[in-house]
Amino acid sequence: MYCPHCGQQQITEVVRFCSRCGFPLEGVMQLLATGGTLPAYTAGPRVASPRKKGVRQGAGLLLLGALIVPLLGILASFGGGRIGTLFELLTAMAAVICFAGGILRMLYAGLFEDGAPKQPHIVMPYYAPPVPAQLPADRSAALPPKPAAYQGAWLQRPNTAELVRPPSVTENTTRLLDNE
After folding, report:
1. DSSP code string of the chain
2. What is the reported pTM?
3. Does 4 reside within a domain?
């Protein structure tokens, strides 16, 4: 595999970064593993925000009240005596709990509960890196050749005994005084 940034040939297929320029090669390996198609990133299951849940609960309570209160009212009109009084009491309690409770639950959710989550949860697909090829027994063939060492004159260390000490500042000042 070659680095798409600098063109350096990589020794193995499991390197994460280019050995010359440091370019991250994981994305390149994913493209090669999938045949050049980008992997599909799918979000996890949608989770409703607390505000949305609260509004739904309040609306559900209102709808439940719209079903239960008329039913209890019908049962209270058919019942007589103590049973009718019991159904009238249940009808009044259901009306207060369902209608007032539903409206109050929606107001509370709208005013005090948090909205949508700040960062969406993204589930990345699992990527199995390719299995590295087995290196041959003779590892010298697997590595690039060693660069030839050039021992030119400019690479040799200077002999420090031959260096001349720089003149001091006082010598130059003294020479200026001697010229006058």
Report:
1. -B-TTT-PBPSSTT-SB-TTT--B-HHHHHHHHTTTPPPPPEE------HHHHHHHHHHHHHHHHHHHHHHHHHHHHH--THHHHHHHHHHHHHHIIIIIHHHHHHHHHHHHS--S-SS--EEPPP-PPPPPPPPPS-GGGTSPPPPPPP--GGGSPP-GGGPPPPPPHHHHHHHHHHH-
2. 0.42
3. yes
